[in-house]
């Protein structure tokens, strides 16, 4: 009888181990994502110019990558530490007067906390909040030719606020649509923009790999 009980306990232990392994495979804690989209930035009215004083930009082609690690979760919600980086490769700049660089590039790194609602359903909405670091690099040439006389490099603190949806499509992959605002200092454009900070609104989408 004692031997039979031992066999039963061993069998239960083995089944529990197999089940736990299967659960871990179906419920990974790590993710890597990639997105493509555009940054959208509001126009600026330049003080001191009597006419044609509106500075416009982009939209600049942008791609983002992110690593995430789930900290806690259940059927209702999950909390993920994520480390998104966005690269704005070329943001065009336009002003009728030849004062500004022709374009600039930027990147933003903003470690954040993301909260997903209903993470195990077919559509999971989420919000993300965090902050970090940004860098601008302006063109050495002015928009209509000539050397840029101003500074061409600038660092900035960044606040990140985002929202989106995740939708699983195949095994370890999900689709992601997202809107994120990287709130940074104004870029170095040689003119008074009338503001010290600006909203860099990223709209894009991509894939998430869970592992």
Task: Characterise this structure.
The protein has 211 residues and is mainly beta. The chain has a single domain, classed as Porin, CATH 2.40.160.20. It has one helix at 2-26, and strands at 30-40, 44-45, 54-57, 60-73, 77-94, 103-109, 112-117, 124-138, 153-170, 173-185, 197-210. Strands 1, 2, 3, 4, 5, 6, 7, 8, 9, 10 and 11 form an 11-stranded antiparallel sheet that branches. It is elongated, with a radius of gyration of 24 Å.
How do you describe this structure in short?
This protein is mainly β.
Sheet with the most strands? 11 strands, antiparallel
CATH architecture: Beta Barrel
- End-to-end CA span: 44 Å
Amount of helix: 10-25%
Runs in which pLDDT lies below 50 for 5 or more consecutive residues are: 4-10, 12-25
Q: Mean pLDDT, nearest integer? A: 89
Query: Might you state the CATH topology name?
Result: Porin
* SSE order, one letter for each helix or strand: HEEEEEEEEEEE
Strand content: over 45%
What is the top-level CATH class?
Answer: Mainly Beta
- The value of Rg in angstroms is 24 Å
Indicate the structural class: mainly beta
**What general form does the structure show?**
elongated
Number of strands: 11
Helix tally equals: 1
């Amino acid at each position: 009888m004692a031997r039979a009980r031992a066999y039963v306990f061993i069998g239960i232990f083995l089944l529990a181990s197999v089940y736990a392994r299967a659960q871990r495979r179906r419920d990974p804690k790590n993710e890597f994502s990639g997105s493509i989209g555009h940054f959208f930035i509001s126009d600026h009215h330049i003080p001191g110019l009597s006419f044609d004083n509106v500075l416009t930009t982009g939209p600049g082609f942008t791609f983002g990558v992110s690593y995430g690690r789930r900290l806690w979760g259940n059927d209702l919600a999950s909390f993920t530490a994520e480390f998104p980086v966005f690269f704005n490769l070329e943001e065009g700049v336009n002003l009728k007067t030849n004062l500004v660089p022709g374009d600039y590039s930027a990147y933003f790194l903003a470690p954040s906390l993301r909260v997903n609602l209903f993470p195990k359903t077919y559509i999971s909405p989420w919000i993300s909040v965090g902050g970090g670091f940004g860098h601008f690099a302006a063109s050495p040439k002015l928009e209509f030719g000539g050397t840029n006389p101003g500074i061409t490099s600038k660092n900035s603190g960044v606040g990140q606020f985002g929202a989106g949806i995740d939708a699983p499509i195949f095994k370890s992959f999900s689709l992601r649509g997202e809107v994120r605002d990287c709130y940074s200092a104004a870029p170095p454009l040689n003119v008074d923009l009338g503001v010290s900070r600006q909203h860099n609104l990223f709209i894009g989408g991509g894939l998430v790999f869970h592992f």
